[in-house]
Each structure stands twice: as structure tokens, then as C-alpha cells.
Amino acid sequence: MTQSFITDDERAPNEHPVAVVASRHLSVTTRAGSGTVPVFSNGDWLAPTRDVQRAVILIHGRLRNGDTYFELAQRSCSLAGGSAADTLLIVPQFLATADVDAHELPPSTLHWDWTSWMAGENAEGPAPISSFDVLDAIVDTLASREQFASLAEVVIAGHSGGAQVVQRYAVVARDEASLAARGIALRYVVANPSSYVYFDAMRPVGSVASAVSGEFAAFDRARCPSFNRWKYGLEDLPAYSRDAASAATLEARYAQRDVTVLLGGADCDPQHPALDRSCAALAQGEHRVGRGLAYARYMALRHPEGLARHRTYVIDGVGHDAKGIFGSAQGLAALFGTGL
Asked: How far is CA 154 from CA 145, 178, 336, in A?
């Protein structure tokens, strides 16, 4: 197995400093304080532009390798026929404390536990700012008419650990009003996450096949007391969401949002080294593709009137591989609107 494959497949260990840190930075300020986040982008996205029509925010996986994901975003954009002139690519980098120390970064740099950013948890320093606050700051910047006069669409996408961020953010994001006020569409693209947020205690029963056909039952909490806690359910929400609306309201908002789930048909290894095998994750299914199909069925059963803006695609022959997912016809369509 080559190192390139290891990097793409996210099998490599994640608890060591990243090799590359982005040179650009975004300032994030909340009531809890302020900090900066490294950002890869294909231009000076903080300077006014009248040409950009689409912005794609791509979230890296658990390896925090924003440089790899930025290269992937550029490659996929080129395959879709886009260019830096009309498509803005943004890859924020959610660093660990060890990254800040190893690269001797400024004390203003936000840093998390190795993977806590994947659940929207607060940074360990310099201020308790959520990874969701970072996405809010990017969206607010993109909503500026003075900054982006021609922007028509924003896409927030992620693979693996990044997809966990995107799916949770699509559930609890405070609102889309700043973009909607300008008529800017917002789409979420969730690719090969290990788990999803459920809205009640129902979980798939038995095999993958039975889950897909619609068999769900109330889960026995005694088997896994944490099965419905955040990030697997809506109990014990993170600080970002402590003042969130009711579960019913969160679900109603999520059902109305534009969400595409991309699943690698070959991402079906129940022993994959980067697969979440906690009891809460296993309550959702044996492996990623099974969990994704079960969740699609779960949402469909809860919304018999239809989920017009939700869709799930299985990409045959692709495993846990961001390049394969986002280089596919379905992936390019989800990111850049080709063929949609």
C-alpha cells in the first residue's frame, strides 16, 4: 500500500503534527472570544471580487491535511470545467494543539483536541470557539454583497471526518438568513461519514439489508448508554447548540435544507482502521455504506411527504477515498452543479 493511498484513504495515524499549515488566516470572533484559523484558498478571498459565482468550502478529514484536500478541490474543479475566476475554493484547517506547537504558530491560532472539531466542540484555545463558529464566520463573509457581488451558490462539503462536520452543521447551523437574503443557494455535501445525527431513539435493526428495507426499533439504552448523545443523537448538545431550538425544529430545518450524501459502494469494511466502532456508531450499522443507506431510509420514513432536497448516491467501486468520491460524476455534480 503506497503512502499516497494511505493519505487518500485516511488510514494513516492522525495523532501527530500535520506536515503543512495554510499560510492564509481567517479571524473568528464570538461572544466567547476570538482566534484565527488557517485557510487554503485559490485566491485572496477576503478581497472584493465581482467574478466569483460559486464558493465551495471543503472540510478535510481526521488527518487535518488541508493541503491534500485543497489539491483535491482544485483537481475536481478543473474536471468540472470551473476555474479560479468563477469558483472560489476554501479549505479551513482545524488544527490540533500539537500542530500549533510543532509549527510554532501564533498564539491566536485556534486549536482543538485531535478530533473534537469533528463534532463541533469548542477549541482548547485561545478561546472556546466551535468549529461550527468557524463555518458561520466563512458563511457570513461570503454573504457580503460588497465582497462577493455575483455569488449565487455556496457549497459546504466534507469527506469522512469532514463529512461528520458537514452533516452535523446542516442539522444545527443557526440559520441561513444571511445568504438567503441575497438569494444565494446553500448546499451541503456529506461523503462517507462514520455516523449521523439521529433525531430520536430509533435505530436500524439487524442486517444492512433489513435496515435499508425499513426495519427500525427503539434502541436499548442498556446496550450503549451513549447511543443518543451528541454527535450520534441530540442529547448533550455542544456549547454551540445549547440554545438551539427543539429537536422537532432542528429536524424540520434539516429536512428543508439541500443535502447530498455520497457513499462509496466499496466503503463496506466493518474493520476499517478509520471507522468509528464505538457502541453508539455500531448502533447505526456495521460499516459506512450500510449506515448511510439506513440513515437515508430513516429520514424517508420520518418524512413520508418527501424530502425534495435530500438525495443519496452510491458510487460503485469506490471505497473510503475522497478522490474517488469527488472525482466521480455524482461527486462533481454535487460540488459544482454539473448535471444537476
From this structure: 14, 12, 10
User: E-assigned strands of 227-292?
Assistant: 258-264
Looking at residue 47, its pLDDT comes to: 82
8 confidence band (pLDDT: 50, 70, 90): low
The pLDDT, as a whole number, for residue 207 is: 59
pLDDT in tens, 131-157: 999 999 999 999 998 999 999 999 999
Question: How many CB atoms lie under 10 A from the CB of residue 5?
Answer: 12
Write out the three cell numbers for 243: 440554545
Measure CA of the first residue to CA of the last residue in the chain; give whole Å.
35
Alpha-carbon distance 314 to 310, whole Å?
A: 14
| Domain residue ranges in the chain | 3-336
Phi-psi region of 245 (alpha: psi -120 to 50; beta: other; left: phi over 0): beta
Which residue in the block uniquely carries the three cell numbers 492522525? 14
pTM for the whole structure? 0.94
Within its chain, how far is the Cα of 263 from the centroid?
14
Average pLDDT over residues 90-102: 97
* Helices 66-79/329-336 angle, 10° precision: 100
Q: What cell was used for 142?
A: 461570503
CATH of domain 3-336: 3.40.50.1820
